[in-house]
């Protein structure tokens, strides 16, 4: 019986496009029916391979490959699609140069312990273990073909490392794609907007992500396969809420809920009292960052109703007032402006 896998195939077309670009191999989608979810035909060096991917009623995937080319395509899909097996979460990125890899290690190494791992796998260029101050462990591997793989049981930390690396590797290389997000087609204005909305990844975002990682602020819950632009929005939100949490600590305030902040910026649909990632993306794209801050005030007000995701209390167990929330948030915004220059 074929082994079955947990896959997130939301962006399968993008994965196939990446494969064609990286390996310069023609891949065509064939006909599918019944439990045959997708069929791909791979033309390589005069031979044609066929990859059949099956999906059962439980949403689990299996495959059948008739030659080596088809097997390699499956491996690529497997490594570039969200996978959950035995509690291990995996993320990957393709076409990472050795210089890019060292850049990632440089900015992740300031606050995190990094140990190189020896391996007998000849396909591995370098493998390291990254241990954060909160003892989250991530294994980061760069393969000889440029593929980058993140592995770790600490799901949220793995996602943060993935987002940070994606920014460094890809943000500045997709300028035209991001410019297309803006309605105004005037080149001068677009250049200005681009610089305003997407600051330099190396100088600003890596530092901001490191600050959040080292503070163990894990805020986003939901979908994992996000565009680089959404990763920027996520990061900006993390920085803002991360500084807020530090401000709470300074004032000896406690988040009296195990769920904490993590549901405040959740991808997908949400309630009127919860910011969604799509909404945050549109606000930043439209220059309405202040709306995000206003919503943060509303999060902090905390009425005891089903939409309240956390309570913030002082040493006498008194709830934080709206006025106190505004004051602390303004302090946080000021600190972010002074340090990162990424929020208005």
Describe this structure in words.
It is a single chain. With 344 residues, the protein is an alpha+beta fold. It has two domains: 1-73, Bacterial toxin RNase RnlA/LsoA, N-terminal domain (TATA-Binding Protein, 2-Layer Sandwich), CATH 3.30.310.240; 155-339, no CATH class. It is 42% helix and 21% strand. The chain has eleven helices and 15 strands. It has helices spanning 12-23, 68-79, 98-108, 155-170, 175-179, 187-197, 201-214, 228-250, 277-285, 289-301, 322-339, and strands at residues 7-8, 26-29, 36-44, 47-55, 61-65, 82-85, 88-93, 113-116, 124-131, 137-143, 148-152, 254-255, 265-266, 275-276, 312-313. A seven-stranded antiparallel sheet has the order 1-6-7-11-10-9-8, covered by helices on one side. Strands 2-3-4-5 form a four-stranded antiparallel sheet, covered by helices on one side. The protein has a two-stranded antiparallel ribbon with strand order 12-15. β4 (47-55) and β5 (61-65) form a beta hairpin. α4 runs antiparallel to α7 (201-214) and α8 (228-250) crosses α9 (277-285). The chain is extended and about 65 Å long. Mean pLDDT is 59; it is low at 84-92, 153-237, 256-278, 296-311 and 339-344.
Blueprint of the fold:
Layout: E1 7-8, H1 12-23, E2 26-29, E3 36-44, E4 47-55, E5 61-65, H2 68-79, E6 82-85, E7 88-93, H3 98-108, E8 113-116, E9 124-131, E10 137-143, E11 148-152, H4 155-170, H5 175-179, H6 187-197, H7 201-214, H8 228-250, E12 254-255, E13 265-266, E14 275-276, H9 277-285, H10 289-301, E15 312-313, H11 322-339
Task: Summarize the structure in short.
The protein is of the alpha+beta class and 344 residues long. The chain folds into 2 domains: 1-73, TATA-Binding Protein; 155-339, no CATH class.
